[in-house]
């Protein structure tokens, strides 16, 4: 099998001065792409700025024979980052929204600044870079966008109400945008990486970090951003060489005879909140209407399922 190539493609990677973004940038640089290495060069808490992080990565790409340019703007000003791609290379094909910071603190002690800064970098930054790239991708009927979500957003992590909510929001953004981009060959996906970087080095042991090399995140990002890949609107959890896809699951639920009361909900709480064998994997917001407006069919199934539970031999 011949290797994946990105010749002629223009890739913008935000936060590419360190960690995962740096690995992506070095990879694309080796595979023929023209790379915009964006990095504000601040601390992991979002303070300060420096051009050296992006410059070092650009130098490394060039030293290996690749093509790259640096950009030092904060992702909040996405139009400036995309402008660097357009002015230098004339187009934008792939956007990796990767820049990130942490402001971990319990909700009780969280300051507005901790909340706002996380939202500015993760959600506003993802929006601003994508918004600026979107007209070019629409016009050329081609684009690949990867947004960086997190297991923290999917499951929630203590001390990260700001980060968890912003990270799950980036996947909501992916879901809606993938629907808008599909007809124009613009595919949008989210990843939840787990990897050794300055964001994780203080919370995990050395042994664990050893097996979580940031380069193990590159293959999925490369494939999702390749022209042969048609995946869109999906979210993947990955790290240590393992990759898996996540999806929503709806339980069977319970259809009440209307009108109904809070006491009825209490009495059927196991059916409403429990997960048994009959589960659904909805993909659109309108699928639930098939249940709302097919009550008779649903009730029949609900009754059949109950009979099955009473007479397990019928299963
Ligand atoms: P990192 O700290 O090594 O790299 C992030 C880079 O983003 C830094 O170089 C930083 O200067 C840059 N950056 C921060 N704010 C910026 C801004 N406003 N504009 C431009 N650049 C900015 O962190 P890492 O681990 O490589 O993180 C990459 C992404 O992956 C982040 O979005 C992070 O939230 C996410 N992530 C990482 C996980 C991990 O296990 N490392 C887990 C889940 C998500």
Q: In brief, what are we looking at here?
A:
Its main location: other. With 315 residues, the protein is α/β, with parallel strands linked by helices.
Features of the shown structure:
Rossmann fold; 8-stranded mixed β-sheet; binds 1,4-dihydronicotinamide adenine dinucleotide; alpha/beta; 315 residues
Task: Tell me what you see in this structure.
This protein is an alpha/beta fold. The chain has two domains: 237 residues, 3-Layer(aba) Sandwich (Rossmann fold), CATH 3.40.50.720; 53 residues, no CATH class. It has twelve helices and eight strands. The protein has an eight-stranded mixed sheet, sandwiched between helices. A hairpin with a 2-residue loop joins β7 and β8. The chain starts with 9 loop residues before the first strand and ends in a 5-residue tail after the last helix. The mean pLDDT is 95. 1,4-dihydronicotinamide adenine dinucleotide binds next to α1 and α4.
Terminal Cα span: 46 Å
Helical content band = 40-55%
Oligomer state of the chains in this structure: single chain
Hetero groups bound? 1,4-dihydronicotinamide adenine dinucleotide
Shape: globular
CATH architecture of the largest domain: 3-Layer(aba) Sandwich
Q: What fold name stands as the CATH topology of the largest domain?
A: Rossmann fold
Fold blueprint:
Blueprint: E1 10-13, H1 19-30, E2 34-38, H2 52-63, E3 67-71, H3 78-89, E4 94-97, H4 112-140, E5 143-148, H5 151-155, H6 161-181, E6 186-193, H7 206-211, H8 218-224, E7 235-239, E8 242-246, H9 262-267, H10 269-273, H11 288-292, H12 295-310
Parallel strand pairs: 1-2, 1-4, 2-3, 4-5, 5-6, 6-7
Antiparallel strand pairs: 7-8
Helix pairs in contact: 1-2, 3-4, 4-6
The structure holds 1,4-dihydronicotinamide adenine dinucleotide.
């Amino acid at each position: 099998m011949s290797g994946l190539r990105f010749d002629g493609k223009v890739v913008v990677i935000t936060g590419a001065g360190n960690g995962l973004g740096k690995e992506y940038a070095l990879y694309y640089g080796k595979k023929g792409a023209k790379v915009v290495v964006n990095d504000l060069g601040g601390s992991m808490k979002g303070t300060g700025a420096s051009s050296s992080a992006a410059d070092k990565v650009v130098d490394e790409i060039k030293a290996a024979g690749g093509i790259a340019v640096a950009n030092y703007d904060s992702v909040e000003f996405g139009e400036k980052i995309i402008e660097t791609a357009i002015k230098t290379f004339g187009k934008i094909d792939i956007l990796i929204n990767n820049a990130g910071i942490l402001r971990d603190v319990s909700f009780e002690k969280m300051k507005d600044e901790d909340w706002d800064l996380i939202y500015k970098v993760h959600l506003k930054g993802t929006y601003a870079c994508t918004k600026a790239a979107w007209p070019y991708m629409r016009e050329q009927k081609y684009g690949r966008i990867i947004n960086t979500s997190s297991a923290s957003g999917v499951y929630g992590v203590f001390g990260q109400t700001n980060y968890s909510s912003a990270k799950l929001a980036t996947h909501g953004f992916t879901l809606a945008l993938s629907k808008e981009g599909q007809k124009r060959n613009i595919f949008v996906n989210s990843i939840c990486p787990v990897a050794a970087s300055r964001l994780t080095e203080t919370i995990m042991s050395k042994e664990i970090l050893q097996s979580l090399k940031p380069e193990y995140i590159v293959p999925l990002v490369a494939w999702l951003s390749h022209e042969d890949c048609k995946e869109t609107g999906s979210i993947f959890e990955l790290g240590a060489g393992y990759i898996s896809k996540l999806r929503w699951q709806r339980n069977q639920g319970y259809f009440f005879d209307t009108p109904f009361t809070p006491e009825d909900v209490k009495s059927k709480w196991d059916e409403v909140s429990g997960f048994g064998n009959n589960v659904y994997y909805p993909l659109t917001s309108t699928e639930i209407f098939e249940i709302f407006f097919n009550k008779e069919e649903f009730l029949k199934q609900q009754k059949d399922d109950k009979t099955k539970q009473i007479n397990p031999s019928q299963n």
